Amino acid sequence: MNNIFDLINDFFAFLAPITDAVWDFPTNINWYKTIPILGQFSFPVLLLIGVGIYFTIRTRFIQRYSFAPAIKIMLARQPSKQGVSAIGSFMLGLAMRAGPGNIVGITGAISIGGPGALFWMWVAAFFGMASAFTESVLAQLFKEKKDNEFVGGLPFYGKRLLGNKRFVGLFLSLVFITYALFNIPAQTFNVFSAIGAIAQAATGQHYSHQSTLYYTIAVILVVGCTFIIFGGIRRVVAYSDVLVPIKAVIFVGISIVIILINFPLIPYFFREVVVGAFAPHAIFGGAIGTALAQGVKRGLMSNEAGQGTITMAAAIANNRHPCEQGLVQSFGVFFDTMVICTMTGFIVIMAHVWTGSVDGVAWESVRASKITLYLTSVQALVPTFIAKIVEIIMCACYGLFAFTTLLGMISFAEISANFISKKYSFILVIRILGSLVFVPFGILTILAGLELGNLWYISDLMNIIMVYLNIPILLIGLPFVLKALADYRQNKGASFDSKQYGFTTECWNGKEDGTS
Predict the structure, then answer these.
(1) What is the distance between the alpha carbons of residues 507 and 317, in angstroms, rounded to a whole number?
(2) Domain, as residue range, for 48
(3) For 237-251, what is the HEC assignment?
(4) For the segment 475-491, what is each residue's pLDDT rounded down to a tens digit?
(5) What are 347-405's pLDDT values in tens digits?
(6) What residues form DSSP beta bridges with 149?
(7) What residues have CB less than 8 Å from 365, skipping those under 6 apart?
């Protein structure tokens, strides 16, 4: 068993320099670093922000329409029994977006880039809303039917836009399945971390990774995941419809209470965020590029705009017009970053734990564990007599964030796998891999004592690979999106007929509900 643990540790350690090199390129090249201002920004940051700005301009600031219409769409009655409702799709997408990264990722970004990282998260989210709209409309336009469900997403619109070649969709599907499955161990780790923190806070005892508690968690997690995943997408949506609102309401509600308790610190928060965006403290590197890179990286990895990962949730929805789901998923980016991530930012920045660190070395040790840093910030802002209760509640939210993301990863892998084959036997293989192979694999990393920082390397690497694959396809598909958007604006969301605009789709040929 120890040999297996050693192999797991070596595998993730091997990916660390590769992931850093890909994300930092070309800032890790000497001549590029000497370029004023530009030399501080990596290509992934420039790409994600750049295409977001481009899509914003081409859609004439679609962000303006992503609030009231999106809410109205989600509350409307589903057109037919085909597929899932708009709000069901939104909740499934939010199950993925509102994950542990909203806590540890945002805390990590602030601990490295300073409070200004949050400002750049807001900027990235604003432009990311246009990217999310674009990819979600494409997912709707080129979705396909499967019995009483829809399937679609990146592999489906990628195949259609890149010469209608099946091997293109096969490649994209395999990459996405790999992305989803290899993100599962990190989410498994987060579930264990949350429950372990709850147990420690409640009992005052420290539990080892090979204690009875951890083995009990392992059994419950595997059984729970298997039960939900083997029930199919509809069962996953049914559970996400319940769990996602619970975790969001509790997390945001408790965060607001903490903010109100520390009301006098609110001006300090905004001053640190705005000033830190352009003049970070020396302890955070003192360079705008560090704050911007961390803000964009963690912000877009949290709301997932432009990665193509949320397109699976967008495709399964039953909408009256393909642009409706674009507006819904664009609103999802806003809610994820501007609301949930900002709540984390408020707490970490208002607590300003880094103030007690006299030098960079001391701060490095403090920020080593992101969840510990977040919980320390929470404790610093609440009265002592309720600190443990608040800590337990926040850890429970963190665990729910991880669990729903875990379900989303496996479900999205299943939706993507439908491009390869819609046969039940093949889909069953994906469900088995997710819940009975990769979840247990993630449990092995817990028993091996693997640190979360190492697990994040594979997540970061797969995230940027998805971005590099998806963004060029979105640029190619933008004309189709603009045609659909012009139709939506002109006809106020009436039935969409793709043939009127010179292309054909399986589900959009003028029928009101887009199902035939």
Answers:
(1) 12
(2) 1-490
(3) HHHHHHHHHHHHHHH
(4) 999 999 999 999 998 88
(5) 999 988 877 654 555 566 666 677 788 888 888 898 988 888 988 898 898 888 889 88
(6) 146
(7) none
Cα-based torsion angle of the residue sequence 467, 468, 472, 475 in order, rounded to the nearest 10 degrees: 30
- The alpha helices in 25-115, defined as continuous H runs, are 30-33, 43-58, 68-75, 86-97, 104-113
Cα–Cα distances (Å) from 334 to 48, 299, 305, 321, in that order, read 16, 11, 10, 21
Calculate ∠ Cα 344-348-352, nearest 5°: 165
Q: Which residue in this structure is represented by tokens 């039917």?
A: 145
3-state secondary structure of 437: helix
Report d(CA 99, CA 157) in Å as an integer: 26
| Contact indicator for 85, 93 with CB cutoff of 8 Å | no
Q: What contacts 226, CB < 8 A, 6 or more positions away?
A: 435, 436
| CA–CA dist 398, 208 (Å, integer) | 20
Going by the DSSP 8-state scheme, the letter that residue 335 receives in this structure is: I
Closest CA to 108 of 291, 328, 249: 291
From CA 12, how far away is CA 27, in angstroms rounded?
Answer: 23
Beta carbons within 8 Å of 407's beta carbon, 6+ residues apart: 95, 225, 228, 229, 236, 239, 240
* CATH code (residue 193): 1.20.1740
498 in a structural domain? no
Specify if 341 maps to a domain.
yes
What angle separates helix 452-491 from helix 288-303, to the nearest 10 degrees?
Answer: 70
Q: Give the integer Cα–Cα distance in Å for 443 and 190.
A: 10
Domain count, the chain: 1
CA distance 67 to 328: 8
* Residue owning tokens 């996953």: 236
Spatial contact of 95 and 403, defined as CB atoms under 8 Å apart? no
Tokens of 326: 């674009």
CA 304 to chain centre: 5
CB atoms within 10 A of CB 483: 18
Considering the domain boundaries, does residue 508 fall inside one? Answer: no
Of 430, 359, 347, the residue nearest 390 (C-alpha) = 347
CB proximity list for 408: less than 8 A, separation 6 or greater: 92, 95, 96, 236, 240, 313
* CB of 186 closer than 8 Å to CB of 459: yes
Do residues 410 and 184 make contact, with C-beta atoms less than 8 angstroms apart?
A: yes
Count the Cβ atoms, other than its own, within 10 Å of residue 490: 8
What pLDDT score was predicted for residue 326?
A: 92
**pLDDT for residue 516:** 46
Integer Cα distance of 291 and 162 in angstroms? 36
**For residues 59 and 50, what is the distance between their CA atoms, to the nearest angstrom?**
14
Q: What is the rounded CA–CA span in Å between residue 19 and residue 461?
A: 5
- Residue 237 located in a structural domain: yes
Phi, psi of 109 (to 5 degrees): -60, -40
Segments of 74-166 assigned E as strands: 144-146, 149-151
